[in-house]
């Protein structure tokens, strides 16, 4: 086994989001602060009423995958492949015999799964398409990326509801530190499907209009989709190869609390859920050797959800006390999805690179939750060295990732 590296850095990032392709498109939209919700096709409608979502309008794989192979790749994997190619574009090729892939996804290839179940229910195994089963399994994205990019090393998939992206990064970071791979692609992806949208609507989780993250009068979230992929490697390997670090992953933490917590319904998490969130933050800071006062910005998971936003606010107030640590979120602009933890990491990299804090769009005149005295409601310049990304899942699991500015 290889000796453990001294640190882990991000040396490439690919983003495909409702804002478009790439970090520049994401940054432009975040700092503009306009919600990207659009009216969805009729298949998403509930009783004929128009529905809104934040969708990815183009998945440009032409020239990256042959037409014959493209027919065998579902839309979920296509989005991840676009992001993966962009994450690798500026660096040297990964060592195919040892590098690997870690993917986080909350729902997986839901469209293929729903169609497979429909065919099985209608006619049984004899009429079900044999291509649907391998396309429906949860690890299909990691498998497709490994095959298309020729990566033969470590591979795994993380499925943990709303913190699937954060925990995928934690798993990948640990795999590098343990010497399981010399470099990894870590990604998170989920797609906006009619089945998912109808389920969220039935749960009462969706807003009737644009989302209002952390707002006192918030009414639900805007369901979105997207893929983010990071190239992750040991710091000394990247430095020796002359690759610039976009950010250093210096601390990670996770903890579980109240498993009965349903973020869509509850006004806030139980004491156990709040304690789990605080513990995740404490663990990330302790690993990095930093105190709460050294965090310059928090990218929270506020998305307009009545319960998850209140839980996030309670956790941050408990972790940081009365100090008004700046808090913002991208979800008022690009919507949210279960694997959106890495979208928040991408947003953190944008803020670190620009030295500007984007606003939590959609808070509005009624103001934010009183638990968040540092809620950012207008863009501002800032000297940022460290950004904390925080996420919580319905079911009580919390995760925190501390990222320092790259060199």
Question: How is this structure best summarized?
Answer:
The protein is α/β, with parallel strands linked by helices and 407 residues long.
Give a quick set of tags describing it:
407 residues, alpha/beta, 11-stranded mixed β-sheet, two-stranded antiparallel ribbon, 13 helices, 34% helix, disordered N terminus
What would you say this structure looks like, in words?
The protein is of the alpha/beta class and 407 residues long. The protein has helices at residues 23-32, 67-70, 75-88, 110-123, 132-136, 140-149, 164-177, 194-202, 235-240, 271-288, 306-320, 331-334, 341-354, and strands spanning 8-17, 20-21, 38-39, 52-53, 100-104, 155-158, 184-190, 226-234, 247-256, 297-299, 327-328, 356-357, 380-381, 386-392, 397-405. Helices cover 34% and strands 19% of the residues. The strands form three sheets. Strands 1, 2, 5, 6, 7, 8, 9, 10, 11, 14 and 15 form an eleven-stranded mixed beta sheet that branches. Mean pLDDT is 91; it is low at 1-5.
Structural class: alpha/beta
- The number of helical elements comes to 13
Order of helices and strands: EEHEEHHEHHHEHEHEHEHEHEHHEEEE
- Percentage of residues in DSSP E strands: 15-25%
The outline comes out as globular
Count of beta strands: 15
Average pLDDT figure: 91
Largest sheet descriptor: 11 strands, mixed
Distance between the termini: 28 Å
* Uncertain segments: 1-5
- Helicity level: 25-40%
Rg over alpha carbons: 20 Å
